[in-house]
TrEMBL record:
Catalysis: reaction(s): N-(5-phospho-beta-D-ribosyl)anthranilate = 1-(2-carboxyphenylamino)-1-deoxy-D-ribulose 5-phosphate
A Pfam family assignment: PRAI
GO molecular function, one term: phosphoribosylanthranilate isomerase activity
Keywords (A to Z) from UniProt: Amino-acid biosynthesis, Aromatic amino acid biosynthesis, Isomerase, Tryptophan biosynthesis
Species per Swiss-Prot/TrEMBL record: Aurantiacibacter atlanticus
Protein name: N-(5'-phosphoribosyl)anthranilate isomerase
Gene3D superfamilies the UniProt entry points to: Aldolase class I
Isomerase in keyword set: yes
Similarity comment: family membership: Belongs to the TrpF family.
Example GO BP: L-tryptophan biosynthetic process
Enzyme class label: isomerase
Residue span, N-(5'phosphoribosyl) anthranilate isomerase (PRAI) domain: 6-206
This protein's pathway: Amino-acid biosynthesis; L-tryptophan biosynthesis; L-tryptophan from chorismate: step 3/5
CDD domains named among the record's database cross-references: PRAI
């Protein structure tokens, strides 16, 4: 059985990266989006990227960033994954994919089955879909729970992941109901918006890894 991937998103300090890596996260997310409480400048994201150990893959998150600025950010930060969290088209995802060695992920607000089906247009353009709760104030990181029933028995045609309001208390049920191969948490492992809590990160990773080991 493949390992469930665990992404801790919106990290802003070296200590938080260490906490995620030590807890067994497979991916860490760095947000470059000015309105977010987790926003990092390109220079700060590059410093944190350099701090990240080889055991974790670094995911850079952008929102509708123009192609030139995206290319500059990728050059500077050298992430392993680019997560497009706005209204980026499949053509745009495909262009990035074909011009880089990056994994490209597309976040999709899952509000009904039709939104899942529409996301299939990213097949071949993005490597993975990240289903997140729709309708928050910000494009992501809202701590809103996605209705897992939408994903139950859904026949996925692409690699995918589950985000939206996950925390140590609900991640096992989320995995059980949806069979998610990747779980992603941000607000649920914070003590305040933008402030990651090492204890909550540890508890989240422990719960997800425990569920994985139990074959959930
Ligand atoms: O985290 C942010 O502040 C953010 C801002 C703008 C776009 C995306 C953002 N985060 C994306 C993520 O991958 C989050 O982990 C995901 O939306 C889940 O967040 P949460 O519901 O808070 O766990």
């Amino acid at each position: 059985m493949p390992e469930t991937l665990i992404k801790i998103c919106g990290l802003t300090t070296p200590d938080a990266i260490d906490a995620a890596a030590d807890a067994g996260a497979t991916h860490i997310g760095l947000v470059h989006y000015k309105p977010s409480p987790r926003h990092l400048s390109i220079a700060d994201a590059a410093k944190l990227r350099a701090h990240a150990p080889d055991s974790v893959k670094v995911v850079l998150l952008t929102v509708d960033m123009d192609p030139k600025a995206t290319a500059e950010a990728l050059q500077e930060i050298q992430p392993d994954v680019l997560q497009l969290h706005g209204k980026e088209t499949a053509e745009w995802a495909s262009l990035i994919r074909s011009n880089s060695d990056l994994e490209v992920w597309k976040a999709v607000g899952a509000k009904d089955r039709a939104s899942l089906e529409q996301a299939e247009k990213y097949k071949g353009a993005a490597h993975r879909l990240l289903f997140d709760a729709a309708g928050g104030e910000m494009p992501g990181g809202n701590g809103l729970l996605l209705d897992w029933r939408l994903l139950m028995n859904y026949r996925h045609t692409m690699d995918w992941g589950l985000a939206g309001g996950l925390n140590a208390d609900n991640v096992v049920d989320a995995m059980r109901y949806t069979g998610a191969p990747l779980v992603d948490a941000s607000s649920g492992v914070e003590s305040a918006p933008g402030k990651k809590d090492p204890t909550k990160i540890k508890a989240f990773c422990k719960a997800a890894r425990g569920a994985m080991a139990a074959g959930v």
